[in-house]
């Protein structure tokens, strides 16, 4: 791995005739392989009036195929100690697992079958519907979840794909039936948009070959491209309170809309965010709110760039008596960063950290697979691990501080508070 | 392939035990320092002190002033953390190999030179109370705390690791510092180093950093033995919420006790194999679609999730089955179906096919949960602290050697009605419940530091 880090991951990247892309990287660190197969069928593709379709599909897609029953799939997975993970992200739906090297071929074939030929049995749909509704009810009783979902709904209003609840609502989940799920699969699952990533104790050429065997004869039309609109600019400060008087602690989300992953200022923004709310124990925010004032067990900022403009959200969990003081402290740190900027020392420290943490990020098969998926999704290139230090090194203090002045404006913050606070 | 080669073992003159495993795959090293002190060592009135001490051990030392803490490991791209649970407190750093000396320096400072500034102790009091309140927001954690407290009458495993609120409000800086000084001695610790290192070099450096720390009298641990439970116990938490939860907890063998590994296989049959790594495996869902309780409860449309929890511990602890009731399903129905399956295993044992599948699952999990220097280092130190590193090295064989008769015997002995505590979280409709101030609620599970 030492050599790999210096020379780069250098995976094999091969496009099949049907347009599917296979990326394979051999690593013998453990006798296991991570397989991750993704299609652009995330929650952002949900019909505007039926949020929750992609999430629902993720819960049922692996519960039966045209040639295998749900029980057969269960037996195949459980007898090998494998748990299949199907995740509906905003833009992609990812089917992944880690398996023993000896099970690679079997698991790749199963994933291909699940992705290509789901049978979506009615009985499975009914079972998963109940699970999803229970999960939504649990989220409704979770202040952290309420604060974040409401924050996104405010930042991305009017049916914007980033503002909709990923699981949908109880009402929309009730509307989602087999025809809706079948249509979503038909419209969004196509070979030309398929990405297969295999990392681990398998010869890379063999991984490509096996992927070709199970996906190569798949034919289909390209899915229509998804356009993510820019959200309306926020011109004023907004605060929304969601009283949950049965809870002990309040959760705060405090955010701004920012940039997309493809924006050239992404690396400067990553460094800015690291200084603000990540470095060590929550960056400047952690220094102030947790370390100096002892107000919160957790406080941090999360910057999650995506295909479209995405948010920077500051999160904190505090006693209800400290909500106002915590928000004032966040205001102070945000304002100070915009006014005075980050220091050269802070920028250098965050840069060292982000570059230095790469060997940890790329230590495990799953870590490498996630990294390579992201490289492909955002067109970063298969040598991104080699170029990333340079891209971070190129960021200047002025670039980071210009972003701070432009985006970190308390007067345009969107704030949500969920917990035992604010009820009349 | 064995899931773990034997580490090199060394002792310093002051009694510090060192376990080293060289793995030259990634340019990384993981350093963990483990102490045989956890919430089981706390006296009434001082519950939560182990965890609070752990927090204080990130607050500066004689040679790492408070303002130098930030960035001390991040400058190597590293991460650091710690956690406290019933038997143990541990600290870790994982960073590039060139940080080895820095990591050992940090751990030596943490062992010997914590500052415990009064102002920092006060500030951390509210941070920990915030952590407690955050846990209390989760009904499942509330229920776990109540069930654990009901299951133990004599053994201190019954109180939550984070402590009772009144103790957290009352304890003083002197309580913290004296506890720290009593337990943080080299002959009560194990240092684990795994990664791209040279073992001889590690021992030399460890001797340089730790060698002058004097040993002390190792505190005697709890002598209380939990008496046999004579009948089923039940607890009901009624609180505003949206979802109902069920827990069924059985007194379970210690890691070295008779029946631990058979029970691990029983859990795989009931809820799918989790493996044995608290730090890693419990973040990955188990393979459980064909597991008996999953089929009865989730596929039976009574529950939205079911999980089993069995961890290696120094003394007999609990095997806990946790169920989230499906919207619209009564707890009575969920409990009836769950107990029916559990009682069937107690009566009939498991089939040989189920046993083979459980062994296969655990064989795979042992590979998956030892996939990084951090995870391997955790396992070496965890097992050494609760039993011995030799136990860790033998878990693969022990799992494979469990017989169908041993499973049947363990199931009949452990999964008895009289040995269980049943807990319900009954949600009261929002707006119709009482709103009491935060009291003693918190997670009964491990609590992470920092």
CATH architecture of the largest domain in chain B: 2-Layer Sandwich
* Helix content range of chain B: 25-40%
Structural class of chain B: alpha+beta
What's the CATH superfamily of the largest domain in chain A, by name? Metalloenzyme, LuxS/M16 peptidase-like
Structural class of chain A: alpha+beta
Whole-number radius of gyration of chain A? 23 Å
Specify the biggest β-sheet of chain B. 7 strands, mixed
Q: What number is the mean pLDDT of chain A? A: 95
Please give the count of helices of chain A.
Answer: 17
How would you characterize the overall build of this protein?
The complex is a heterodimer of chains A (424) and B (450). Chain A is of the alpha+beta class and 424 residues long. Chain A is built from 17 helices and 11 strands. Chain A has helices spanning 2-7, 53-60, 70-78, 104-116, 122-140, 143-155, 170-175, 178-188, 204-215, 266-277, 279-292, 323-340, 344-356, 358-361, 365-377, 384-393, 397-407; strands at 12-15, 21-26, 32-39, 85-88, 93-100, 195-200, 238-243, 250-257, 296-303, 311-318, 414-419. Chain B is α+β, with helices and mostly antiparallel strands. In chain B, helix 9 (260-271) packs across helix 15 (404-414) and helix 10 (292-298) runs antiparallel to helix 11 (331-348). The longest helix of chain B is centred in the N-terminal third of the chain and has 19 residues, at 118-136. Chains A and B meet through helix 3, strand 5, helix 5, helix 11 and strand 9 of A and strand 5, helix 4 and helix 12 of B.
